């Protein structure tokens, strides 16, 4: 028998949860002390709760199991909510342990007292406040099971201080789980009939369907039936590169996504939702499935994706079909004027095998998919929930989950400032992460959105809300102040030298790329009109324009 904190950590470790990203306070001190007694648990300190939650997200995406976070009361949980939102949208398993005041202290409404359960429910599918030391480990086991799913989800266990320090707790094993079901025979037969019939067909993949085994299976189905393969706009984890089936991602801009989907008669969902516009826009549709297109679901989030694809492959006779695979191809060494596109081209040219790309480049990464399509096999982690401040923390978690793999985080300057503290954790843990900051000194994507939403009359005061020039942010000095080796690149050649150095040198590095916005000046002014015209253009021309804007 031991105190609650020690038994809780043993329960986590016995369930395979061996990493905890922490930002503790007074109520969590018994948990902190108990870490010394369980050497199997790795504790990683973050200087901001959003770094801890984002790191837990990145870890789980690559490790295929949850990490824990240790957060301080409702305020600490609130500080971590943005990246928990991204984890929730990506169906990523995360276990939050949130300290609370001792149960007998709650009635006094102390300064940090808050309704933690209400805060947690915004991002958590499972929430519970443990009421006693004797039931704590059972609560923890149920929280772990809920987080692991399927689908993966955020689970929040609230730990009162006296439940943590109380004696008499024993570790508890996880409840027995059952294998998720495959698609039922009737659904498989209906989808097989649609795929083998007339009309244009596409398969939209998300979540677990974007891993190599599922991609190979669905590529055989596509080769047999002629179906087009799409991926979610912002995938949780996409395995891609030479030797794997190429998959076209749904565009962020709704007008471009509509061009991709126009003409479809059947759209089959595999671990994905029907595509919708990120935001509502005046006079534009939110639901992007074309009118008259029949929607089918092969595997929902609670079902076995691989088994479902196996049944469909057999039903359409695709088991022996040869999948279309991406051939090895490098874009060449970039030259000339330094732009964000040149950074993406350099990454495609130099990307090492089995790298992990964490993509929060927003507008600066428009050409990334094209330039890295034929690069050596790699993983791409995207901003699933759209809440910025994801890239640097996610890279922390991915690097801890996969210490033998190079992690490259592509982050906009505005996004980086949300969770810049992640650099300190990279230095403290000596993580093999290259952070590339696209410093275009503005919230570039919002300059695009300002025009797309039809907000008229915007002048100096409005544009100043999207401008980061005054004062200019010095990411090299910020990174050096947190112990990360840093360089600034103002030319293509300077970037190549810095990137090559970081690739061959272990440990954390930051490269500040001083680039102009990818969409500015005439391009920015013309873009809304161009997007509006797409629906009126012949489809081949519209698709050509889509490829030019966002390949």
Question: In words, what does this structure look like?
Answer:
The chain is α/β, with parallel strands linked by helices and 551 residues long. It folds into three domains: 4-165, Rossmann fold (3-Layer(aba) Sandwich); 185-316, Rossmann fold, CATH 3.40.50.1220; 340-519, Thiamin diphosphate (ThDP)-binding fold, Pyr/PP domains (Rossmann fold, 3-Layer(aba) Sandwich), CATH 3.40.50. The strands form three sheets. The chain has a seven-stranded mixed β-sheet with strand order 9-14-13-15-16-18-17, sandwiched between helices. Helix 3 runs parallel beside helix 5, helix 9 (185-196) crosses helix 12 (305-316) and helix 13 runs parallel beside helix 21.
Question: What key attributes describe this structure?
Answer:
about 550 residues, alpha/beta, Rossmann fold, 3 domains, 7-stranded mixed beta sheet, 6-stranded parallel beta sheet, 23 helices, about 40% helix, globular
Enumerate the strands of the largest sheet in spatial order, edge to edge or round the barrel: 9-14-13-15-16-18-17
Main beta-sheet annotation: 7 strands, mixed
Determine Rg (CA atoms, Å).
24 Å
Mean pLDDT: 94
- The assigned CATH architecture of the largest domain is 3-Layer(aba) Sandwich
Q: Class of the largest domain, according to the CATH hierarchy?
A: Alpha Beta
Oligomer: single chain
**CATH topology name of the largest domain:** Rossmann fold
**Could you tell me the strand content as a percent range?**
15-25%
Helix content: 25-40%
What is the number of strand segments?
A: 18
Q: Note the overall shape.
A: globular
């Amino acid at each position: 028998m031991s105190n609650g904190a020690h038994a809780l950590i043993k329960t986590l470790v016995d369930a395979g949860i061996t990493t905890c990203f922490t930002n503790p306070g007074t109520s969590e001190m018994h948990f902190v002390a108990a870490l010394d007694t369980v050497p199997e648990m790795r504790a990683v300190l973050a200087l901001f709760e959003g770094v801890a939650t984002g790191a837990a997200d990145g870890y789980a995406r690559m490790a295929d199991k949850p990490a824990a976070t240790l957060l301080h009361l409702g305020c600490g949980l609130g500080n971590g909510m943005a990246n928990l939102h991204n984890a929730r949208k990506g169906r990523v398993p995360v276990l939050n342990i949130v300290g609370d005041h001792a149960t007998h202290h709650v009635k006094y409404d102390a300064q940090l007292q808050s309704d933690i359960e209400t805060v947690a429910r915004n991002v958590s599918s499972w929430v519970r406040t443990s009421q006693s030391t004797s039931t704590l480990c059972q609560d923890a086991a149920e929280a772990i099971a809920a987080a692991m799913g399927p689908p993966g989800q955020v689970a929040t266990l609230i730990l009162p201080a006296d439940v943590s320090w109380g004696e008499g707790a024993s570790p508890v094993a996880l409840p027995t789980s059952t294998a998720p079901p495959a698609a039922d025979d009737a659904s498989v037969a209906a989808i097989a009939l649609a795929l083998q019939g007339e009309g244009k067909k596409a398969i939209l993949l998300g979540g677990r369907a974007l891993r190599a085994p599922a991609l190979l299976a669905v590529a055989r189905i596509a080769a047999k039936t002629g179906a087009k393969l799409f991926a979610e706009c912002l995938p949780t984890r996409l395995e891609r590169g030479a030797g794997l089936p190429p998959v076209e991602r749904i565009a962020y801009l709704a007008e471009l996504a509509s061009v991709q989907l126009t003409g479809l008669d059947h759209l089959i969902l595999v671990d994905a939702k029907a595509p919708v516009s990120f935001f509502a826009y005046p006079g534009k549709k939110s639901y992007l499935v074309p009118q008259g297109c029949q929607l089918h679901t092969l595997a929902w989030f609670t079902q076995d994706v691989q088994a479902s694809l196996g049944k469909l492959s057999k039903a359409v006779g695709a088991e022996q079909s040869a999948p279309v695979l991406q051939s090895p191809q490098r874009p060449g060494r970039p030259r000339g004027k330094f732009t964000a596109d040149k950074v993406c081209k350099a990454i495609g040219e130099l990307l090492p095998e089995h790298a992990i790309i964490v993509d929060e480049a927003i507008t600066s990464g428009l050409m990334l998919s094209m330039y890295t399509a034929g690069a050596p096999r790699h993983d791409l982690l995207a901003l699933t929930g759209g809440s910025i401040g994801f890239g640097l923390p996610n890279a922390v978690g991915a690097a801890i989950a996969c210490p033998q793999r190079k992690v490259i985080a592509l982050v906009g300057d505005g996004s980086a400032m949300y969770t810049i503290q992640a650099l300190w954790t990279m230095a403290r843990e000596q993580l093999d992460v290259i952070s590339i900051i696209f410093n275009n000194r503005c919230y570039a994507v919002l300059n695009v959105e300002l025009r797309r939403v039809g907000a008229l009359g915007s002048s100096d005061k409005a544009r100043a809300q999207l401008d980061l020039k005054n004062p200019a942010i010095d990411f090299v000095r910020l990174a050096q102040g947190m112990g990360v080796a840093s360089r600034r690149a103002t030319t293509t050649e300077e970037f190549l030298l810095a990137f090559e150095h970081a690739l061959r040198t272990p440990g954390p590095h930051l490269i500040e790329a001083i680039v102009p916005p990818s969409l500015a000046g005439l391009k920015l002014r013309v873009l809304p009109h161009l997007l509006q015209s797409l629906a009126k253009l012949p489809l081949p021309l519209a698709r050509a324009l889509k490829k030019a804007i966002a390949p």
